[in-house]
Specification:
The protein is α/β, with parallel strands linked by helices. Helices cover 45% and strands 18% of the residues. The chain has helices at 25-32, 44-60, 79-91, 106-118, 132-138, 176-193, 195-203, 205-209, 213-233, 249-258, 266-283, 289-301, 314-321, 351-355; strands at residues 2-6, 13-18, 37-43, 64-70, 99-104, 124-129, 143-148, 151-158, 163-167, 334-339, 342-346. Helix 6 crosses helix 9 (213-233), helix 6 (176-193) runs parallel beside helix 11 and helix 11 packs antiparallel against helix 12 (289-301). The termini are far apart. Bound molecules: nicotinamide-adenine-dinucleotide and glycine (GLY).
Length: 364
């Protein structure tokens, strides 16, 4: 078991990482956010697999627990569901002493976190992430929110949790495709910040694929450590530094939008997006061919896609990129590598380079 600290002055918190530790949820809760009333938000799948059991541990510890199991999937990050949750919380007598506990993937963390940020102007909040993506990315850093019909993550807040309880055993029930999608974000940290970590993943592929508890705890811990460093340096994304976490996301978001968020998981779109960004960096003379091939090989080793599927219209992807939130002064800001373990924000990319056949057409 290991504990990392996210240092954000009075918003600082611990991330506990280990195998089997979710079963001690009641102890963590009383240590991080003592309360007598818990609002546990989960989705219907996770509720059956884990949420129900964790709620029982809390009840057995003498806490009053109200469970809200919402439908599975991205559509639950909606204003309609948010209003429903607010009203249910009111009916259940939730007050500022209550604590919101999110048990689920990124959808649940984002939704429950936004409920916590807004109900009675702010409730304490604990994250218990159950997907790899949520364990290495969305549960840390305090970005919470919901979608508008036409725009993902458009309404939200920065609301840091009071603790993050990461139990890698919860990943045992995760479908392989969801696990792979989380690996895209893990590999991302190696590329943007830590060449040694990238190499460690290369050398320990089978242990990770076999869900060896120590290997899983290592990749989760190192990912959280790296994310925490970025969040500590730029909590509210004001200096631009936090944007390095968006490596692969400019192309990735456009790919997700082009497929109407239906055929590609977020991590899969990010995997392809990272290859596109690497190819763009190559076209601009920033990295060599070997860099691109090494990245593609590692992504493929975890069954992640590395090419834009043939049925996706490349022009539509390029057009959608211009609608990305990161367009600054009408120029796209790309996060581009210079070497393994280092990226830079680049805003003066020639449109022709982005459009270049070398990046887009060669990927099909
Ligand atoms: P998700 O929450 O929809 O979970 C994916 C699927 O896995 C769901 O069907 C869920 O029911 C299932 N699942 C979850 N845990 C399981 C388990 N242990 N066993 C079996 N099935 C399980 O999706 P996600 O990929 O975790 O998160 C995606 C969301 O995260 C998006 O909404 C994205 O915008 C958000 N996100 C937020 C941040 C942030 O910083 N806040 C960062 C990245 C992504
Ligand atoms: N997932 C990007 C961020 O937390 O800033």
């Amino acid at each position: 078991m290991s504990t990392l600290r996210v240092n954000l002055a009075e918003r600082s918190y611990d991330i506990a990482i280990g195998s089997g530790i979710a079963e001690s949820i009641a102890d963590y809760l009383q240590q991080w956010s003592p309360t007598s009333h818990v609002v546990l938000v989960t989705d219907e799948t996770v509720d059956e697999l884990h949420g129900d059991r964790l709620a029982s541990h809390l009840t057995e510890a003498g806490l009053e627990v109200d469970v809200f199991a919402v439908p599975v999937g991205e559509t639950s990050k909606s204003a309609d569901l948010l209003i429903e949750l607010w009203e249910s919380l009111l009916d259940q007598g939730t007050d500022r002493g209550s604590v919101v506990v999110a048990v689920g993937g990124g959808v649940i963390g984002d939704l429950a976190g936004f409920v916590a940020a807004t109900f009675t102007r702010g409730l304490r909040f604990i994250q218990v992430p159950t997907t790899l993506l949520a364990q290495v990315d969305s549960s840390v850093g305090g970005k919470v929110g919901i979608n508008l019909t036409e725009a993902k993550n458009m309404v939200g807040a920065f609301w840091q949790p009071n603790g993050v309880l990461i139990d890698v055993d919860l990943l045992a029930t995760l479908p392989p495709r969801e696990f792979a999608a989380g690996m895209a974000e893990v590999i991302k940290y190696g590329v943007i910040m830590d060449a040694e970590f990238f190499e460690w993943i290369e050398n320990n592929q089978s242990a990770i694929r076999d869900h060896d508890a120590e290997a899983l705890a290592h990749i989760v811990e190192q990912s959280c450590r790296l994310k925490a460093q970025v969040v500590e340096a730029d909590e509210r994304e004001t200096s631009g530094h936090r944007a390095i976490l968006n490596f692969g996301h400019t192309f990735g978001h456009a790919l997700e939008a082009a497929t109407e968020y239906k055929s590609l998981l977020h991590g899969e779109a990010v995997a392809i997006g990272m290859v596109c960004a690497a190819r763009l960096a190559f076209t601009l003379g920033r990295v060599d061919e070997g860099f691109c091939q090494r990245l593609e090989k590692l992504l493929a080793a975890f069954d992640l896609p590395t090419k834009i599927p043939l049925d996706i219209d490349r022009d539509a992807v390029l057009k959608l990129m211009w609608h990305d939130k990161k367009v600054a002064d009408n120029r796209l800001v790309f996060v581009l590598p210079t070497q393994l373990g280092h990226v830079e924000l680049v805003s003066n990319v020639d449109d022709n380079a982005v459009d270049d056949k070398a990046i887009v057409a060669s990927l099909g």
